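Chain A, query sequence.
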Amino acid sequence: MLSGPEIYERMLGTYERAQSYEDTGEVRTRFVKRFWPDRTTLLPFTTAFVRPDAFRFEFRSRAGGLGEGQRYLIWRSGDEVKSWWSIQPGIRINQPFELAIAAATGVSGGSSARIAALLLPDLQWGRRMRFLEEIQLSGQEELEGAACYHLRANGPDGRPVEFWVDARTFLLRQLFETRQLDGFRTETTTIYHSPRVNASVAPEKLRFDPGESQPPIRTKLTLPSANLLPFAFLALLAVGNALHWRLRPGSRWSYAPGLRAVAIFSSLAIGALVALILAQARGDQVLIAICLYGTLVLAYTGWRRERSLLTEKARPRTARP
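Chain A, predicted structure.
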């Protein structure tokens, strides 16, 4: 009988040596919050891979949430990498493969990165399954008619994980993780239906087939779009602090209307500029909305302070006795 670490090592070796791989699966995430009904999301996905560099991953969202009906596609052939998300305009091209995988990790429930990192050990993103600790064999179970080893382990971050490995192929068949967040808990089950290695992969399973009439969007490698969000918040924070300082009651700038106007319009201009940069780099409506919302909040704060200052200035002052 193999031990837990031995099963785990054989699983890793199976993926590393695989000349081809394909699967279908789904990520089921259950959100548990006290005094609220549970909510479950379902993300079906497919993966196809032919060594050394042919890869296709797709997930769709279903049932229950803001992302219902979405479709996300990542494709690679040689050095050419493309990605497409149905809620964003255009096709991303000329981007690093790892960046394309990382961008889809959160919205795909981790399914975009997990198998890719097992098949391609050089990937730095999604390597959690490659560095499990304290691996223990809990027994054998049957999943979808296949005998599987049930193992428990801890990830590099200390969070526990349960996973099931096919006893014949040593491929991952199921994964269960739970996470405690502020005010609620998530229980995520990832199921891999009949994964296969070293079998012929049909050409259509490696085809890049996004929606029609999608113009290409070139990703600028000198400034990865994933790093723009911190700059947006830092810019808004800096402008907000400057705005509040200039409008601080009692400061020497309090009654300088020109400086107050410059501060307010500067915050609006910088916020709009950051929103335009995000729109060009990512087309991410959520980030743009956050940026514009922060800008409007700062402008509104400035207007309220100016109003209070004008009211204070207009108030008659009583002479001291």
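Confidence is low (pLDDT under 50) at residues 219-227. The longest strand covers residues 184-197.
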